[in-house]
Amino acid sequence: MEINNTTFKTLLVNHKEKKLFISLNRPEKKNAINPVMTNELLYVLNYANDENDVRVIEISAQGDVFCAGGDLNTMAGEENEVIPDMKGTIADVVKKLRSLCKPVVCRIEGNVYAGALLLVCNSSHAYALDDVTFTAPEIKRGIWPFMVMAGLFRVMPKRDGLDMIMRGEAMIAAEAQRTGLINAALNKDDLSKHVDKVVNDLSELPPNAMKKGLNAYNNQEFDDFEKSMEFLEKEIGESIQSEEAKEGITAFLEKRKPNWK
Question: What CATH number does the domain located at 3-203 have?
């Protein structure tokens, strides 16, 4: 599959070296997620999952809104004739995002609304401009943001998360950082430099150890302590015997940069 030569209707996609850049590209619709975008995201994330040379994914957006959530004005019948039908929903996109077990970095340069929080909460890293806001306004439309909760309460304290979805009020970037919704709120220059560095750093780390570690993190997240320790003891035993561990230790002793295969 040659992703760089594929035509997308709702995304800009670029696989460069070990990095896969995905940018939501419906700025005229505030990057709202319609069925075409859902299908294209599933297609690209499947590519990221299958392609060993993808070590980190960056998600950004065109225009002044990162994403307005699900498109409430979806037109039935629209599709991308180039991309096969992945037969999935936004929930499937989020499940695929987590099951990749690869670093996913959100570069947030516009406001985040509703279902867009699914992308932010279920990425491993999220950095935002210091003037953007995060809003779960569903309650004001008579809807409870059910799916958002699955990721939200994995990154935010319960009372902060509940207040956000119960009142539907916007949260400023500094508050989003305080509550753990994002890693940091930065000015434009610092955001660009910092996200570039994070993505580059992640792309240079051992891919198999990263995937195994993130998979273990997901699997033990809500186990009790004894069960987690039993599982993680087994995982570290296997990890120490891996080819990457041998290469990493040898490179350290030889005072050289490791060569991750």
Answer: 3.90.226.10
